[in-house]
Amino acid sequence: MRVEIEILGSGTSSGIPTVGCDCWVCRSENPRNRRLRSSVLFRVQDGADEVRLLVDVTPDLRLQALRAGFSSVHAVLFTHTHADHCHGLDDLRALYWGGGRQPIPVWGYPESIARLKQSFAYVFDHEYDYKGIARLEPQVFQHQPFKVAGVTVTPIPVVHGNMRVAGFRIGDAAYITDCNAVPESSLAALKGVRLLVLDALRRAPHPTHMSLPEALATARRIGVEQVFFTHINHDIEHESVNRELPPGAALGFDRLLAALEPDGRITISERPPGPPLIA
Hints:
Elements: E1 2-9, E2 39-46, E3 49-55, H1 61-68, E4 75-77, H2 83-86, H3 92-98, E5 104-108, H4 110-119, H5 121-124, E6 136-140, E7 146-148, E8 151-160, E9 163-170, E10 173-176, H6 184-189, E11 195-199, H7 212-222, E12 226-230, H8 238-242, E13 249-251, E14 256-260, E15 266-270
Parallel strand pairs: 3-4, 4-5, 5-6, 10-11, 11-12, 12-13
Antiparallel strand pairs: 1-2, 1-14, 2-3, 7-8, 8-9, 9-10, 14-15
């Protein structure tokens, strides 16, 4: 089985550059300092079939899908329902059309699905007579692994201030965003993970996110071979900070492709930038 994680967005809730900010990172011409809101796409291949699992639907979903070149997914996995992770839900209609108008399963904690139904009631209302919306199939998980299109997904509970957030493990790859603590039981569930994408907002401590030093320490405790950090704000400049990190640790960036190959190798590449999508 091949498991690939594409980082669709590596930025914090405001995105980078941040509106109204004149700092050197927001003014940087380096594309790795330009960060859409945090999301990833898992591509899981077993034989000839590829399963695409989208984690979160950010307000940047349209740009992310165009840039990554996908027009359908087999399911959406929600980490939680803060705006930067779910307010692109209406844009799922393009993926619904691209998937042959088959309802898209959306998975989340019960409280996440309840909040989505509240915020986007029209999308989940089967009596709503308008063809220009996605049709979604809400599904809930708690602590046990579940299967999506034949792929086993293990939810990893983490702490984000006063709420729980779901990380996801597929094979020996995992994605964890928006957390300030990983409980011991979740560290145990991550045993054997070799490739990890992990929240690291900034250098300084934060009440609801891991700092870069905290994220490094967490990756060491898990024992991963390669970790990429995400949900990065404009306090972190890509090239200068990346040079400080130890082997096996690096800042993530938009368009990064990291995969666990069937032969056991970890491969790292970058999607070509393509034409600019916005001026």
